[in-house]
Structure formats: C-alpha cells, structure tokens
Amino acid sequence: MPSMCFPSLLERSIFLKTAIRAAEAAGTVLNDHVRSGFRIEYKAAINLVTDADRRAEDHIVQTILAAHPSHRILAEERGQGGGTDSRYQWIIDPLDGTTNFAHGFPFYSVSIGLEYDGECILGVVLDPVRHELFTAAIGQGAYMNGKPIHVSGIETLDKSLLVTGFAYDIRETANNNLDHFSRMSLRAQGVRRTGSAALDLSYVASGRFDGYWEVTLSPWDMAGGIVILREAGGLVSGFTKGEFSLYGKELVATNGHIHDQLLDTLHQRSAGR
Ligand code: IPD
Ligand code: CA
Ligand code: CA
Questions:
Q1: Ligand 1 centroid to residue 261 C-alpha, Å
Q2: Using one digit for the tens of pLDDT, what is the confidence trace for 68-127?
Q3: Ligand 1 site, residue 167, Cβ cutoff 6 A
Q4: 195 lines ligand 1 (CB under 6 A)
Q5: Which end of the chain has fewer CB atoms < 10 Å from its terminal CB, N or C?
Q6: Where are the beta strands (DSSP E) in 53-150?
Q7: Which residues surround ligand 3, an ion (CB under 5 A)?
C-alpha cells in the first residue's frame, strides 16, 4: 500500500490489525512452547535465546510480509529483512523477557512497533499469560483489551512505583545501572525489576507504574511500548529531556509529572549525591 504522505486513519487501522494478528500468532506459539517445552541456547554468558523466540518471530514476520510485502523488517533474532526502500519499518521483539520465559516465571511479552520515515506510529504489546493486549496508533489513543488506558496522576517521586531493568552486559561495564538503582530505591516508594521492557512501558501507560528508566535498550525493546505510553499521555526521553532516539539505548518513560524528578535523580550520580 504505497503512500506519499503520513499514513491515513484507515491505513493506521489496517496496520494495527496486522500487528494484532501477528502478536496473537506469536502468543499462541509461546503458549504452545510452555506446554511442549523448548530448547535454550546461549548468545552470551547470561543472554539466552530459545526456539520459542525464533518460531514466534517467524510467525510475526510471515504475517506482516503477507499483508505488506514491500515493508522493511527489523527483528531481534534475524536482524534486517523485507523490502529495502520502504518508508515503513516493523520493529519486532518476538519474546521480550526470554530469561523469565526460560525459567517459567510468567512475565514476558510480544512487542511489535511500526516506524514511518523513522517515526514510531503504532505499537502492540501482548502479554500471552494474562491475555492483556496493549495497543496504540498515533493520534488514536492507547488501549488495553479495547479499553482506553491512561498514565497515573502521581506527582512526586517519593509516592511513585518505578521499574527498571539491567542489560546483559551488566558484568562487563561500569554503566550497568546498579548505581542508579540504589539511588532511586532510596527516593521512590518502590522500585521493581520485571524483566520485560515492553510490559514495563505498557504498565507505565496503564498507571500500574509511574516511571521507568533503563540505560542500555535495543530498538525492539522500546518500539511498541513507547507509542502506547505516549498515546496514554506519558512522556518519553533519553537521559536528557526533550531528546529521544529509538536507537539511542537510554530511556526514561514516565507519567509526565515525575519526569524531571526522575531525570534529576539519574544525573545526581555525576554530582556524587
Ligand atoms: C530484555 C528485557 C529486560 C531488559 C533487557 C532486555 P529480552 O529483553 O526487556 O526487561 O531489562 O535490557 O534486553 O532479551 O528478554 O528480549
Ligand atoms: Ca527485549
Ligand atoms: Ca527478545
């Protein structure tokens, strides 16, 4: 469906339907593997991948390319694929929370985002365990199982429930978030580490968490969730307010009210506080 200008309402709703179909197909694959078992391989010392990740990704990519054969694909396990000069790029994490999945800890998701000319315009995050489907298209609001969702109204960090995560290079780098984690734990009402960035973003979007930060993310961890969060009234940045790149690794995502306080607390590291 070639388009010379910003995708219309109709196009966005067609893309959203494709993304939902693809996420549900992947969710079924993951649920099947929970019953039938899966093989674990190691990409690095603590970075796992299973055949469930790969099969779920196959189903997502097949579903998307069957509907939109000219579109580009960026998927965690296979890298780049699809057409080469399309203005559309689908960004896919077939299983966000692989470590949880591999241990039988029931907190993981399927995440699909769509970029148009480098702008994220659509996001779908599916929790196949709780059957919660988070969806958003730019300008059309954010939903969980079809019901509108909105960020919380909490205004201070000390009343906030925050969430964060740690990257797989935690043992190899000093920029491993442990300093931020301990400082934030003393300032917030609570800090959680769930193990699925896409669900963390969706939970901020639905008011279950008030803010989220992480230092080393990949585009597929964020692409779906940031649209859901923005459409739910939330704010996204890097570690500098007003600046965000899907390819920039750092993410601060909040209900908006506590954004500056969270950023200030992150920056207190350099001030030694
Ligand atoms: C990981 C999860 C985790 C985050 C890591 C990610 P994966 O993704 O989103 O919450 O802390 O940085 O790499 O490997 O399970 O798809
Ligand atoms: Ca991920
Ligand atoms: Ca993954």
A1: 25
A2: 999 999 999 999 987 778 999 999 999 999 999 999 999 999 999 999 999 999 999 999
A3: yes
A4: yes
A5: C
A6: 72-75, 79-82, 88-96, 109-116, 119-127, 132-137, 142-144, 147-148
A7: 76, 93, 95
**Where in the chain do CATH 3.30.540.10 domains reside?**
9-148
177 CB near ligand 1 (under 6 Å): no
Query: Is the per-residue pLDDT at 3 higher than 50?
Result: no
Class of the CATH-defined domain 157-271? alpha beta
Residue whose CA lies nearest to ligand 1 atom number 15: 97
> How far is residue 5 CA from its own chain's centroid?
26
Q: How far apart are CA 44 and CA 41, in angstroms?
A: 9
Distance 109 CA to ligand 2 centre (A): 9
Q: Which residue has the tokens 């960020």?
A: 151
196 lines ligand 1 (CB under 6 A): yes
pTM of the model: 0.96
State the number of CA atoms in the 13 A half-sphere of 166 facing the CB: 21
Residues 210 and 154 sit within 8 Å (Cβ to Cβ):
yes
Question: Is the CB of 222 within 6 Å of ligand 1?
Answer: no
9-148 fold: Fructose-1,6-Bisphosphatase; Chain A, domain 1 (3.30.540)
